Amino acid sequence: MIVPTRNESRNLEIVLPAIAAVRPAVHEVLVVDGNSTDNTVAVARRTLPWSRVITQTRKGKGNAMACGFTAATGDVIVMFDADGSADPNEIPAFVEKLVAGADFAKGSRFRKGGGSDDITLLRKTGNAGLNGVANRLFGTTYTDLCYGYNAFWADLLPQLELPDPAAPQPEDGSMLWGDGFEIETVLNCRVAAADLTIAEVPSVERERMFGETNLRTFADGTRVLRTLMAEHRRMEQRRRSSGYAR
Questions:
Q1: What pLDDT score was predicted for residue 219?
Q2: Beta-carbon neighbour count of residue 212 at 10 Å?
C-alpha cells in the first residue's frame, strides 16, 4: 500500500491505525513523504512502527507514487490518500477484483454502493464531462476518472513507463511528465492504452479530516483534459510506430 504524504501528521494518526486494522492484513505500508515541514515522518514511525517511510526523490504527487511503486515488495499495489477520505476497509474489495482476473481495480464513487461526502455539484459535472472524453478517446467505460483510489498488480509497472524515480530534478525546477497531480489520469490512460483488464469498485469518499485540500476545480479540470489529449497522442504515436491499426 502506497500512502503519499506532505504535512499530513494529524491525519496519519487516524489513517495508519485504520489501515493496520484491515483484515486480511495488508502486506506492507509505504509512507512516501514529500519533504513535510510538520512532524509527518515522526508520526508515521511512531503510529505504525512497521510501516516503511521513504522520502520522494523529486517533487509532485506523481513522483511520490512512482517512488512508492518502485519500493513496494508485494504482488498488489494499492494507491491510498493520507487525508482520511478513503476507507481502508474497502481494500479487500479491490484485491478481490484483481484476484478475479482484473489487471487494474479502479475505485468509483458513482457505481452502485459508492458515494461521496465531499464532491460538489460543479466537480461532479466536470468529472462526468471528463469521463466522456476519456471513454471516447480510449474506448473505456470509466464512471469516475478523477478518483485516486486504485489497485493493480505490481508486475504491470514496466508497461506503465512512469518517470524513473532515480532521474534528477530538472534544473529549471519544472516537473517531469507524470510527476505531478496528473499521475492518476496518466495511469488510467496507460492502463487503457495497454489493453489491460479494468474493473471498477464502488467506493465511498469521505471529507478530508484535517488540513486543506489542494484541489482546484477549474485548474485541475483543465490539467486532466490536457493530460487526456497528451496521453491519447502518445498512444496513437506508439501504435503507428508499431504498425498497430485500431
A1: 67
A2: 7
* H or E segment to which residue 116 belongs: strand 115-116
Q: Once rounded to an integer, what is the mean pLDDT over residues 209-231? A: 78
Q: How far is CA 219 from CA 39, 116, 121, 187, 224, in A?
A: 29, 21, 16, 19, 9
Cβ-contact 225, 184 below 8 angstroms:
no
Rounded Cα–Cα distance for residues 144 and 128 (Å) = 7
Query: In angstroms, what CA-CA distances link 32 with 60, 70, 110, 122?
Result: 11, 11, 29, 31
Q: Is 97 exposed, middle or buried (0-12, 13-18, 19+ CB in 10 A)?
A: buried
| Residue in 140, 231, 137 with CA at minimum distance from that of residue 183 | 231
Cα gap 232→137, rounded to integer Å: 7
- Label residue 119 by pLDDT band (50, 70, 90): confident
Whether pTM > 0.85 for this model: the answer is: yes
pLDDT for the residue 209: 87
pLDDT digit string (tens) for 8-67?
999 999 999 999 999 999 999 999 999 999 999 999 999 999 999 999 999 999 999 999
C-alpha cell at 98: 484483481
**44-56 residues labelled b (16+ CB within 10 A) or e (exposed):** beebbeebbbbeb
Q: How far is CA 218 from the centre of its chain?
A: 20
C-alpha–C-alpha distance, residues 89 and 22, integer Å: 6
- The alpha helices in 139-216, defined as continuous H runs, are 157-160, 183-193
